[in-house]
Amino acid sequence: MKALPEYVSFLKENRTIRQAQTIYNQRISDSEEVFEKFSAEFYNRPCPFCGHDDFHELPKFHNMYGVVKCNTCASMYVNPTPSLEALNYYYNECKCNQHLGQILKSRVGKRGVILSERTEFVVIKIKKLLEFKNQIRILEVGCHSGAFLAELSEVLSDLGLLNAVEMIGIDIEKSAISSPVSDDLNLIHSSVEDFVKSRHENFDLIMHFELIEHLHDPFRFCQDLKELLSDRGLMYFHTPNALGLDNKALGYNDFRPIAHAIFPPMHLNAFTTQNVGQFLLRVGLKVKEVSTPGNFDVDIVRQFVKNYDNDFSIVNRISAEKELAILQKLISLVNGSSHLAVLAEK
After folding, report:
1. Helix locations, 132-229, DSSP H
2. Helices (H), the chain
3. What's the pLDDT score for residue 113?
4. Residue 37: HSE in the Cβ half-sphere, 13 Å Cα cutoff
5. What integer pLDDT is reported at residue 97 of this predicted model?
6. How many C-beta neighbours within 10 Å does residue 197 have?
7. CA distance linking residue 251 with residue 182, whole number of Å
C-alpha cells in the first residue's frame, strides 16, 4: 500500500502572503501602465489554439484588456493582444518581473518541491535518451537567470551524467541573462525567432516552463521549436491549467497569489487539459503525456478564497492536514490541478 501523501503548503514552498500581495499589486500597476502606453497598438488575432476567428467576449481584465472565448474550441485568450513593443516594454522595464526574479533566485540550491519534481522528471527523460545516444543536447527557452538549469546540472553531476549532456538556455529578458545564478551556465539573450535563424544544430529535448501562456503567437513559437528538434526529439513544458481548481476558484479579476491563466499583459493564452492536445496536433507534434502535477491548489483555495463568497470555500470545512493532502493528491490524479505539464514528441 502506498504511503499517504504529505500536505504541501503554498506559503512555505512558494511565497509568503506579503510577497504575494506585493507581486500582485505591482503586476496590476504594471498592467495599467502598459495598457495606458500601448493599448492603441493592440491588435486582434485568431484563436491561438485552433486558428479560427469566431469568438464571444468575456468580462474584461480589470476593465482594461479584452478577454474572449473561442466559439470553435472553447478556449479563452486575450484579444486584442498587446503588441510586441508592449510586451518588450513589460518584460524589460516593468518592476513586477524584477520582484519575481528575486524569488526565483532565492530558491536556487534549496531543492524545494517546485524545482525538484520537475528536475526528477527531466532526469528520467535524459536517462532514457542516453540509452540511444552517447551525447544529447538540451535547450531551455525562457530560462530567466538559469535557476532550473543550475539545479539540473547539479543533479546530473551527482549522477555522473553531466559530461554527456550539453545544455543551453535562452531568454528575451536581458537583465536576467546578464545576472545568471551560476557562471558555469551557457545562457544566451535571444528570442526564439532569432535563435532559430542563427543556429543549425538540433536538440534532443527542448523545455519551456510557464512561458507559452505569455506569447502573442504560441502556435508559431512551437512551430519554430519543432524545427530545432531532432527526429523523435521531445518537447516538455509547463503552463497554467485554466480548468484547474485554483483557477476555477479564483477568477482572473480576483486577488491571486499566483497569476491566473488569463492575466495580461503577462498571461495571454489559457491552456487546458482539453485544448493542449488539439493545439499540439495542429503544430505537428505527438502528445505523449498530459498531467497536472500541481501541489498548491488546495492550500491556495484555503488561504485566499475565504476573501470571496463562492462555493469553493467549502474546502475550509476540512481541517486535518491528512485529509487535505489526500484531497490534493486526488485532484492531481484526475488532472484537476492548476499546473499543467505536457510532453510531446516530433
Report:
1. 147-158, 174-177, 192-198, 218-228
2. 10-13, 17-38, 84-93, 96-106, 113-129, 147-158, 174-177, 192-198, 218-228, 245-249, 275-283, 297-304, 321-333
3. 44
4. 18
5. 65
6. 11
7. 37
Contact 260, 251 (CB under 8 A): yes
Place of cell 488539439: 278
Residue with cell 538540451: 138
pLDDT tens for 59-115 read: 999 999 999 999 999 999 999 999 999 998 998 888 876 655 555 555 455 544 445
By the 10 Å C-beta count (0-12 exposed, 13-18 middle, 19+ buried), 140 is classed as buried
DSSP, res 278: H
pLDDT above 70 covers what percent of the chain?
94
Contact between 155 and 119 (Cβ < 8 Å): yes
Residues ≥6 apart with Cβ < 8 Å to 112: 13
User: Under a CB-based contact definition with an 8 Å cutoff, are residues 55 and 69 in contact?
Assistant: yes
Cell (9 digits) for 55: 469568438
Question: d(Cα 114, Cα 164) in Å, to the nearest integer?
Answer: 25
The confidence score (pLDDT) of residue 98 equals 63
- Provide the 8-state DSSP code for 315: G
CA-wise closest residue to 302 among 10, 77, 105, 87: 10
Q: Which residues pair with 263 in a beta bridge?
A: 267
Model pLDDT, residue 334: 96
Radius of gyration over alpha carbons of the chain, in Å?
Answer: 20
* DSSP codes, 63-125: TTEEEEEETTT--EEESSBPPHHHHHHHHHH-THHHHHHHHHHHTTTS--HHHHHHHHHHHHH
Cell of 285: 507534434
Taking 50 as the pLDDT cut, the residues of the chain under it are 107, 111-114
The arrangement of strands across the sheet holding 339-345 comes to 187-189, 165-171, 136-141, 203-209, 229-240, 339-345, 286-291
